[in-house]
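Ticket #4471: structure export looks truncated?
Reporter: QA, pipeline team
Priority: medium

Steps to reproduce: submit the single chain below to the structure queue and open the exported record.
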Amino acid sequence: MVKPILTVATPEQLHAIIDNNPDYADDVEPLWQHFCALHFKDAKREEYETYYELYLRKHTENEARLQRITELAKRKKAETIDTARHTKPLNIREPINRHSINSNKVTRQVLNLPSSKSHRGQTKVKKPAIPPLLKKALKVYNGKN
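Actual output as written to the record:
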């Protein structure tokens, strides 16, 4: 009567059933053999060990292995976060007055050169060249042929 229920049970459910009813331990031994073959293919029973004990042993070994891997991954991640995400101080430069950069008044005074005001009128401002196609379009637009 209980056999159909036991055949569809998961290993955790079978473990709970055996904990509550130790009389079913012999009846579910083939199921534990099936679970051992399914989950732990290379597992070998030790002397006088049931498949239930083999499954529990392998399951705890697997859990311990996964726990070690998880701890190792957490530790490595913490190390990389510590090394990669440090706040590093920057060398902050004093703000520069742009007017004093362009002005060479001080250097002219030191070198006894004349002021640059007399040379201002000699430089010509170069107009940007208008492309030929744009010139033609502007002539047509303005009505000049």
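Status: closed, not a bug. The export was complete when the record was re-opened. Leaving a note from the reviewer for reference: The mean pLDDT is 79.
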